[in-house]
Automatic annotation (TrEMBL):
Taxonomic source organism: Intrasporangium oryzae NRRL B-24470
The entry's keywords: Cytoplasm, DNA damage, DNA recombination, DNA repair, DNA-binding, Endonuclease, Hydrolase, Magnesium, Metal-binding, Nuclease
Signal peptide start-end: none
Cofactor remark from the record: Binds 2 Mg(2+) ion per subunit.
Entry's EC annotation: 3.1.21.10
Main location: cytoplasm
Protein name: Crossover junction endodeoxyribonuclease RuvC
PROSITE patterns to which the protein is assigned, alphabetical: RUVC
One example GO MF annotation: magnesium ion binding
Alphabetized NCBIfam families for the sequence: ruvC (TIGR00228)
Residues reported in the UniProt entry to bind Mg(2+) 1: 7, 141
BP terms from Gene Ontology: DNA recombination; DNA repair
Record family assignment: Belongs to the RuvC family.
Length: 201
């Protein structure tokens, strides 16, 4: 599976492409950072990000897309830019019919290093080791994108297989019926658990 992962940002947007399947060695395909001048108007910066991002998709033809989930913090302008770039990536992926998955920073750290509280240096070191790189990827945005791609291969790949299996069986991915059965195995009405005295009509 080829994953294109994005650590979204308007000033610096990390992009990493990794090939791999769970349980096997991962391979680095490409990594880089899309930059836009902070002094340019936001619309112009967004167009620049979109143009470069489309080149990444066309050049590497990923099978799945992973994006770091946006979290609000005290810097509203940073969150806005991050969310806007996330939207651009989602639109490109959707138009190409590619599945998109959002992963939290904690999920990524836990998948790569074994600890959701790992620092950036530890995550970068693990990315370097897991991909068999001679040098650590820089800047941090690039390393974060690769960590995200690794996380998706190991976690998202498994989730996708579960979803495909569930779809083949004609049931929701969660395995939970869309509607609770009206009767039990004996054919008798099943009590309402929220109100034991009530039965479905």
């Amino acid at each position: 599976m080829r994953v294109l992962a994005v650590d979204p940002g308007l000033t610096r947007c990390g992009v990493g492409v990794v090939d791999g399947v769970p349980g096997r060695r991962l391979t680095l395909v490409d990594v880089g950072v899309i930059r836009t001048p902070s002094g340019d108007p936001t619309p112009k910066r967004l167009v620049a990000v979109e143009d470069e991002m489309r080149q990444w998709f066309a050049r590497h033809r990923p099978e799945a897309v992973a994006i770091e989930r946006v979290f609000a913090d005290t810097n509203v302008s940073t969150v806005m830019g991050t969310a806007q770039v996330t939207g651009i990536v989602m639109i490109i992926a959707e138009r190409l019919g590619l599945p998109v998955t959002l992963h939290t920073p904690t999920e990524v750290k836990a998948a790569v290093s074994g600890s959701g509280r790992a620092g950036k240096a530890q995550v970068t070191a693990m990315v370097t080791h897991l991909l068999g790189l001679e040098h650590a990827p820089k800047p941090a945005d690039a390393a974060d994108a690769l960590a995200l791609a690794i996380c998706h291969v190991w976690r998202g790949g498994t989730q996708n297989r579960f979803a495909e299996a569930a779809a083949a069986l004609g049931s929701p991915p969660s395995g939970i019926p869309s509607r609770a059965p009206r009767h039990g195995a004996t054919g008798r009405p099943v009590p309402n658990r929220a109100n034991p005295g009530a039965f479905p009509r």
